[in-house]
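User: What would this chain look like folded?
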Amino acid sequence: MKKFFTYISFLLLAVSGFLSAQTVEQRLIPVDDVYVYKDNTIRGMEPFLKTYHSTAGSQYRRISFLKFDISSLSPFVQSVKLRLYTDGFSAGGDNAHQFDLYPVALNTWAEDDVTFLNHLEKMGPYINTPLLSSYAVPAGQAFEPQYIEFSGENLMKYLADSLAEGKQFISIRMREKYVVKKGGSAVIVDFHSKEHTSGFAPELVVEEKDVENLRASEISIDGVPLATFSETQYKYVYWLPWDATEIPTVSGVAKYEDTTISVEQAASLDGTEKQRTARINIQKGADVLTYKVVFELLPPPTDARLNSISVDGKDLEFFDKDECSYKAYLPYNVSSPPVVEVQTFDPEASASVDQAVELSDNESDRTAVIQVTSANGQEHKTYQVIFEKLPELDIVLAIGQSNMAGRAPYADLSDPMDSVFLLTPAGEVEISSNPMNKYSNIRKDLSVQGLSPAYKCALTLRDYLKKPVCFVVNAQGGSSITSWYQPGKSNYDATIKRAKEAQKFGKIKAIIWHQGSADNSAGLTDNFASYKINLAKMVQNFRTDLDDADILFVTGELSRRPDFEEFNAQVVHTVATYIPNSDYVSTEGTELLSDGVHLDAPSNLILGERYADKVIQHAYGGTSGTNTEEEKNFFLIRKEGEVINIQNKDCFPAQFNIADFSGRVLQNGNLQAGQSVKIPVNKGVYVLSFNVNQTNQIKKIIIH
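Assistant: Here's the prediction, encoded as structure tokens.
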């Protein structure tokens, strides 16, 4: 029979019969933690998780949630415990404190997007069975500050089942079972969140079995070693011809001589996965480690699709075997078309490639055409890769926490952004569209990404420069300056990698930064001295590692909430005194979503334009031309609810045009001297253009 290639599927370990062995320990810090209470306030950046039970209504309870990334764990889990640090409580409570843990249905939530009012939507309905674990403190007893530990069979099973199902995350809900009061006042228990500066973060402590002495050194199919074998890869998929009937023979070699090896051959090629799986069992005493080889049949010979396209040896990003046309953008300094290579989905099918001949204005010259013919010669399919060489791009790095990532809705602003390019995960570029933080390698779940200031900043720069621009958007909701300020810190390392990838397309002209709410509380303790030192270090490190000491840095005010006044005054307004070539933008006139934390859509547009104005001013010595203040206004604007009343104050006739921020014209026309017009509008940001006697004025109008 014919021998075919193997394909490594996602990692799945199979283990049975472990009794005793050495273990290794992993300590996992939550990627998200939050408590919910009463209203639409987001509490994910607070230093505490809180618990309290109330019978007066669910809105008065404090319930905490934690999410852990378990992708680094193997299923060889021997024990698990959740450790939470509490500041304790005094004696005299009228009831026992019992803290209960439960599973959470959904793992797509993010700490900077959860409130009491939406937490069931974000996390799914409560799961009240099984109870994963409990910790109880008797009624009336004082409790000193310390870690408390949760463990037990149900918590262990929850983790093991999640690993077996291939999940990347697990989430846990913690609630108190009883109402506890002291002298009529609620006893609310505080636990340190991952944002707390104490260093006593929540942790999931997992002990795993060390299986080094049970590993294989080789697996063969019909006597031919698997070229893709790895001793730490435990599952393989082996593809066979579509009409194969003979089951291959699997064999293996143990890494160590003091183990025994046995093989359970597959029973079928067309049955269930269990029937199509061969198992190589390596045993020492009662301990057994199993490797699996699953046989799959290739599609019949009528398939004329490709399995992959590569460009100069690099897989084409976002390839889909059912999508036939692709555009690949090339850096400005590339002189000749890349070489395209392909692999057919059916190895028996054939394919030919007519390479692009030159990077000219003629699209056919810069297009690679792939013709695919099925194995039986009856089906044909044509693919094409169109190359486009870009000019040298001016690039902006947009980073920070959730208000740079964006949380506002963008349904009305979802069209592709012509001549605005966005760096992709593979270090290439594509035409940008919202949400612009979708390719961040440190972002929260894609579902929470929304409209950000980067959108309007990019469009304004493009229109001013009258040429394409590129953005690298790499923000992370809830992130602290401590993860950003120097090499070795997670967000800095992740971001500098992407920024360097972008440099092949042009020059980084500016960094726009919106961050600080995660550090606001801690910063008050030293008048933000530490924060400013770290921010200055971050900017200097980016400039050094990107080999450009002149990169402009523009930061933004936090929202005009009273608790952010000191941060804005001490950190933002003074930025030019401690970071050379820097400036800031104001959030005056902006508004927040109902969560009280994130900028709404009109405010993101305003702030994005302000960032662009600063970049244009400092990097290009100009102005965007959309300033809100004029020396003399020829018009009078009155906002009457959701109606704009515009009056021509001049003695000459005037022409007017009013459009929304996406450019859609709502109304235009002529106004005689003193004449008015009323225009119905919805909540949003509008641009009024008013021309009197060949003098043009532009005004932004915000309807809240």
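The chain has five domains: 6-17+212-297, 23-209, 306-389, 393-620, 635-703. If you want, I can go into more detail on any region.
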